[in-house]
## 1
Amino acid sequence: MNCEESKELLVAYFEGLLEDSEQQAVEEHLKDCSSCQAELKELTALHDRLVTNGKALAQSNLEKDVMNQLIREQNVRLKAAARATDALKIRRTIMKSPITRIAAVAAVIIVAALGINYIMAPSVTWAQVIQPILNAKTVVFDLILGTDDSGMVQHEIVVGSRMRRTMSNMPNMTMIIDTDNAKLLALDTEAKTAVYADITGDLGDRHRSYIKFVRQIIGQLQGGQVEQLGEQVIDGQKAVLFVGKGQNEEVRIWADPETAHPIRIEAKIGQEFSFAMKNFEFDAAVDESLMSMDVPAGYTLQKTNIDLGNTTEEDFVKSLRIWAEIIGDGTFPESIGTQSAMAQMPVLIQKVTAMQVSEDKGTEIGMSFAKGMLFHQTLENQGAWNYAGAGVKLGDAGKAIFWYQPQGSQTWRVISGDLSVKDVAAENLPK
Amino acid sequence: MSENDKFYVERCLDGHPDDYRYLVRRYQGVLLANLAGKLGSRDRAEEAAQEALVRAYFNIGKLKKPDSFFSWLLGIADNVAKEHQRKDQLQRQREIVRSFTEESSGTELSQDYALESAIAELPEAYRKVILLRYYGGHNCNQIAEQLDMPLGTVTKTLSRAYAMLRESLQQQKQAEVYEV
């Protein structure tokens, strides 16, 4: 080994990275070569000096200081965020982001599509349950909110506690929801943006997938409440129709007369909310990657939190403001409620995007809209409400747009066009 | 070296800010070494390192590849150092005006400022390897993994970095001799 070769290997030598034969060769060379010995000595001296300096710098309070500062700043930021939420005022700020859009949508869709805020009184199990609806591990179907010709179609894949959902009126949006862990991944395939959200609030009994909801209705209808209405033709197929009626809900199931395979299921709750499901596939093989909660490569990720905690009248009033101020350009819509809200989502997104609000603001608008919808769903369950806001201008104090009777209350709450709320006795309600 | 950077970055993103401390622990020495040479004192380096680490935390969502946390953090630290240098420069100009009559109090230099400033002058590729090896507690294999390069390249880079450091330290020494 010559000096040049030896010097090249010196670093690896004192780092102990050489193979035995190389190490021996370097050692042999070092014995006789004073120049390489000097080089090694210099290197070792520098190495030691670096090690000493490294040790000196490793002793510091930096970890404690940094963590303390993080906590302080985090708190300041949280307080600022809380202040911003206190008053829902829609301001124009100079910021534009595709994330605004997707976060706002995510908040609404999570409520609309996952949550049916509805609890039924437990009752005896229906004897003639349709096996696949209740027991299939995976269910693929199309869901229609509203009517077949005008409603939006939502394609849904349910595997255990995971759901994947795409929507006909927002073709670039995909949602994957994990109901067990209360997580949502929303993907905007066009803007390559992802929102990963924690869903907080009561997800337990009240919010479930449509298929679980149908399962619950079927499971809780009493045998006597189910009628077989004979053969019909539905969606171009011969079918047997079963109708089950509960106190406040009705479910119609059309099934193949030979195989009992469900062809179409329609459910109606309260006075306005209805949906239909068709194109069922039970226990179909589903590609696991479709249900993955991992953010795909190349997506910008935004984290957020979707709070589905207690919704209040205040939330509902905020959502009415969004209906009028943002969606209706100052006028209240023809109808409100989950179906209408879902149908108007693309409009809301478009307007929120055009307003160029910040990400946080966009999410906040979406959340308020969603929470208002959730509040309205609770009313569907309790029955007593009326909407009369069609065409009323925002700010019109002389017109009542919505009234409802809170559970256990003698009086009604009446919301006017200026979004003020009053307690009113039943006999004084608007006609 | 329990978990890799990616693991802790993702923990932070998943809402466990407390796990950021492991990244702080891992890179505090690296940052101090990197900054001490640029800013000239231990105190200034600590201040800037803290700022860089906090800034990194609140921007961690913008980190595209969680496994490149180190390089990204170093970039942030370099920016913070530049900002501080600019501030220092202004202050020094003011002080020079004032200090005609009195000795500037000055700040205490780091224990081995000569070495730190020599490191600060290294081109980035060499600086990274030295920082990780001596201030980040990495061995050569870990550096290879962290920087995604073959082990042979790590030792060659180290070797070249040593040569540059020696040369730079030598020059500093000579400069001192001339000054005296």
Note: The radius of gyration of chain B is 18 Å.
## 2
Amino acid sequence: MREGDVGLRLNLNSTSNVRITMSEVISDTMPSPDPSAADHTASPVQADLRLSDVSVDEVVELIRFEMPDDEVEPLLERGVLPGCRLCPVRRSPSGDPIVEVDGVMLALRRETAGCICVKRFDMDAD
Amino acid sequence: MSSTTEAGPAAPDAPTEEGSPLVALVGPPNSGKTTLFNQLTGLRQKVANYPGVTVEKHVGEYRAGSGALEIVDLPGVNGFSSRTLDEQVTRDVLEGRLDGLRPPDALVLTVDCTRLEPQLMLVEPVLELGIPTLLILTMADELAARQGELDDMRLAERLGVEVTRVNARSGEGLDAVHDFLDHVAQRGRMPERACPVISNVPRGMSLPVIDAFAERRRIVREAGRHAKYRPPLPDALTRKIDSIVLHRVWGPLIFLAVVLLVFQAIFTWAVPFMDGVEVAIGTSGGWLAAVLPDIWVRDLLVDGVWAGVGSVIVFLPQILILFLFLGILEDSGYMARAAVIADRSMYRVGLQGRAFLPLLSAYACAVPAILAARTVEDERDRMATIFVAPFMTCSARLPVYALLIAAFIPERALLGPFLGTRAATLLGLYALGAIAAIVTAFVLKRTLLRGKPSSFLMELPPYRIPAARSLFLRLWDRTGVFLKRAGTIILGVTVALWFLTQVPRGMDGSPPSLDQSALGQAGQVIEPVIQPLGYDWKIGVGLISSLAAREVIVGTMGTIYGVEDASEQSVGLQERLRQDLDLGAAVGLLIFFVFALQCMSTVAVMRRETAGWRWPALQFGYMLALAWSGAWLANALI
């Protein structure tokens, strides 16, 4: 089994129904940038974590946007949808995040990243 | 719905039942769509504007075995909302709502299969149109190289369209495309049908936008699953290169190096070509003058047309080299990184990263720069960009700077052998232009163009080696636009100015002396206004003539002073200038040229891009006021 085939299986005991629907739709065959996470139980932590605060190489999942609808649309078109997996790859020389999402590298301003609510996956030792 | 089209009688090229079928090429940007279009239509393309809007229409002719087809290369779009003009126009064309363009009879979609699902998601609504569609997968070789997989047949099954792989660079797979187009040509025009509606929401549902996108993503994901799609591994080479190119320290340094390289290319490497062009124009003009009889037509041709055409063609090598470099940077993928590096600084002054490439182009010529600003999606940012583009020191200012600096600034060392007074003056003029641009953009964004802050999203594609054929065709396209736009206008105005030096004629039909001619009179009329700047009517005539194109003033002053073979190196011309201007007035004149908008081509392009006279008039007036004040200040202080 190849690395890329290991999907990140969400624990369907997570709380919100909405999240289950989106995650079901999005997740299973998505290649995980962090294969080791597949073996751990995922539990939602810190609902108000912003994308701008996530460190490099950390995988997070998008919960919601906190910006006007018309600003959301360009993000949606680029695959940044609720339930999708985001992973900051590096910071630009001016400190803005560059994230990988849906196989694409996307550069955005930290102000925009500050309006995107995400959640981490806690690596609980089992 | 389609608020951008003009109502009224059908356009002259309104389709008839017997017209050739129309095939629309649709796809996200960077999917290889335009490369394919160029492959299919080659040089049989035409560029125009869609009625009433500033979006370019690229239509080409395709000759199939059984007849001809029209192929329209729709703008690369990321969706079908009404957010950008490009998306609106694409939707209008596909729904058949645009005057003069009937709904397409077939569709060709291009999708980069290394990013299959995200790209399919964008064009998915188009699959519901129900017209014959061919889905072309590009970059299939890269998919295989990065260990991705895809079953074409099963994808075709699930999506209900024909699917084929094409390597636009090598031409592999084009046979299937030719077959498809042949069938379309055979089938002929489709019968009239009700206009379908494409939207971001799947048919029959009314979901909020986010859910609509999630639904589309779901549909596409299922199609991908059915087709056993395996996405490629991340491109390791791109990651490695980015770790240097976007490094905190190395990134900006590399960026500066690239910018300097582009400048070097424009100003140093282009020189031999430009000299060559000048010689060619000079000798051909001289030959023409010798060969033709001494009638007014000869003067018109040699002093009017040749001078006018010459002043444009001389810049062609620079424009070509600039476009070549920018094309390479864009196609390789570096431009996206440059925009990211430049974004934060540009954001602080009221612009954004996407404006970087257009403003860099403006250092050669503002005309292509203003056209390139279409890539700035946010309308206010785009307006700010095109408004300040003429402040960038374009190549036409250089002959004027060279002449005045040589005539008035003595050469002395400032920083040892590294910097002399003349070079410092030149740099200072460049800096002044850039500062004016920054301040103007800043002020504009807080006053006329005030609004909520724009967002900046830049996709960073994997690095690729640019394809020569694509580069060449794009160079051809852009050069044609430059020649047509700048060339016809500059030629027209130069001929008009020449004409003004030929009237009013004396009783015996002889041409007037310069101060008696219409142009000379005009110079005398504006003399009171330019006197505070230290100029007389002769400089006034020069200023008026420079409205056509800045560098025309050099030739005009030569004519006025009766100097043979006037050029910026001409010592005779420099001496005469020193007699008529003092240092303060000369510095003022330099500053005048830094600020003033003396280019009818720029005005014309501004009018087209802003669909009206309001903005170009404001730009002209603002820059003129700035120029006059700056020149006055310099003359008063020095």
Note: The CA atoms of residues 32 and 120 of chain A lie 14 Å apart.
